[in-house]
Design goal:
There is one protein chain. The chain folds into two domains: about 5-245, 3-Layer(aba) Sandwich (Aspartate Aminotransferase, domain 2); about 250-380, Aspartate Aminotransferase, domain 1. The chain is built from 13 helices and twelve strands. It has helices at about 5-10, 50-60, 80-85, 105-115, 130-135, 160-170, 180-185, 220-230, 235-245, 250-270, 290-295, 310-315, 370-380, and strands spanning about 70-75, 95-100, 120-125, 140-145, 170-175, 195, 210-215, 275-280, 300-305, 325, 335, 360. The strands form two sheets. The chain has a seven-stranded mixed sheet, with helices on both faces. Strand 4, helix 6 and strand 5 (about 170-175) form a beta-alpha-beta unit. The relative contact order is 0.13.
């Protein structure tokens, strides 16, 4: 089936008991067994829950992993919950290679939490295959890529980095949160694991926190299933249901997010108060050819730097009316933030530090003319 159909039907057959066309919320912690160890496929909801299972089937299908294949998805309590599961695959002395503009929460987990447990890390500009190859160490176990990156909107050539990863015998994890599986398919390009914060575009309505990992590798999938059960950062049934609801409209929302973002990026690029604009859909983006090859559209995220430095950035971010000043992204409503003092405060003073005057926009699906007028007033 095609993407839009999978988003509505994969793992979401009508309920066999009632005929309900929407997956029920199975709000139960345990399940009756016919005899000790003999049950209907579920025994305890940390181990498995029908609502969560439906979400996992759907997420896997959208990343190109069909039900019944050797791989699959695990749905977690948050994007960082998914990240922590990858962390559980590491041991003291292992090395993780991060992008030099990773999401602040990712950096904090590997550089602050796991580093205290003896896991090593380093960061590199992943826009060039040569630099990634040079940065890989004999003890590197995971290469972690974001594309587009948060918040600089740089792109990583997934095929090129996957080639390096395979040469080195590492696992390549690609955070696909910004692009979503509608715009980009990392597993098809050679990645071993795809990570999502389902809080963002997949949920799509700023009313749920969740995460997910998807892989085609049967051994790796078995390991992820074991770890999520053993460690316990599972997606609850209601949260799973909310993400399932969001998936149904993901394709049409991403089309609108992308259309609006391109018009806003072009507006910002031409505005006299704006110094630089980062958006993969712009012809001026230094990796425009890669964006055209790897992504369906440029997506819904933009970052830019105004003339006037941090004072201007703070003034603009507090002057908008439709763009709410808030962290997170990917909802139907538009958001604005200053990453250096909000989502990326944890990288302050490190090699991953972002410009203090950088503004990040999560462009929603409102009428684009209203959004343009809102930004024009704020920039003025």
């Amino acid at each position: 089936m095609r993407f839009e159909t999978d988003a509505i039907h994969a793992g979401q057959e009508p309920d066999p008991t009632t005929g309900a066309v929407v997956v029920p919320i199975y709000a139960t912690s345990t399940y009756a067994q016919e005899s000790p160890g003999v049950h209907l496929g579920y025994e305890y909801s940390r181990t498995g829950n029908p609502t969560r299972r439906a979400l996992e089937i759907a997420l896997a299908a959208l990343e190109g992993v069909r039900e019944g294949s050797a791989g699959g998805a695990v749905a977690t309590s948050s994007g960082m919950g998914a990240t922590s599961i990858i962390g559980y695959t590491l041991k003291p002395g292992d090395h993780v290679l991060l992008p030099n503009d990773a999401y602040g929460g990712t950096f904090r987990f590997f550089a602050r939490v796991l580093a205290e447990q003896g896991v090593e890390w380093s960061a590199v500009d992943m826009t060039e295959q040569r630099l990634v190859r040079t940065a890989v160490r004999p003890n590197t176990r995971v290469i972690w890529a974001e594309t587009p990156t948060n918040p600089m909107l740089r792109l990583v050539d997934i095929e090129a980095v996957a080639a390096v990863s395979k040469e080195a015998g590492t696992i390549l994890v690609v955070d696909n949160t910004f692009a979503t599986p509608f715009l980009q398919q990392p597993l098809a390009l050679g990645a071993d694991v795809v990570l999502h914060s389902t809080t963002k575009y997949l949920g799509g309505h700023s009313d749920v926190v969740g995460g997910a990992l998807v892989t085609r590798d049967p051994d790796l999938f078995a390991r992820l299933e074991y770890l999520i059960n053993a460690a316990g950062p599972i997606a609850g049934p209601f949260d799973s249901w909310l993400v399932l609801r969001g998936l149904k409209t993901l394709a049409v929302r991403m089309q609108r997010h992308s259309e609006n973002a391109l018009k806003i990026a072009e507006f910002l690029e031409a505005h006299p108060s704006v110094m630089t604009v980062n958006y993969p859909g712009l012809q001026s983006h230094p990796q425009r050819d890669l964006a055209a090859r790897q992504m369906l559209t440029g997506g819904g995220m933009i970052s830019f730097r105004p003339h006037g430095g941090i004072e201007a950035a703070n003034r603009i971010s507090t002057a908008t009316k439709l763009f709410f000043l808030a962290e997170s992204l990917g909802g139907v409503e538009s958001l604005i933030e200053v990453p250096a003092s909000m989502t990326h405060a944890s990288v302050d003073g490190t090699a991953l530090e972002v410009p203090p005057d950088l503004i990040r926009l999560s462009v929603g699906i409102e009428h684009v003319d209203d959004l343009l007028e809102d930004l024009d007033r704020a920039l003025a």
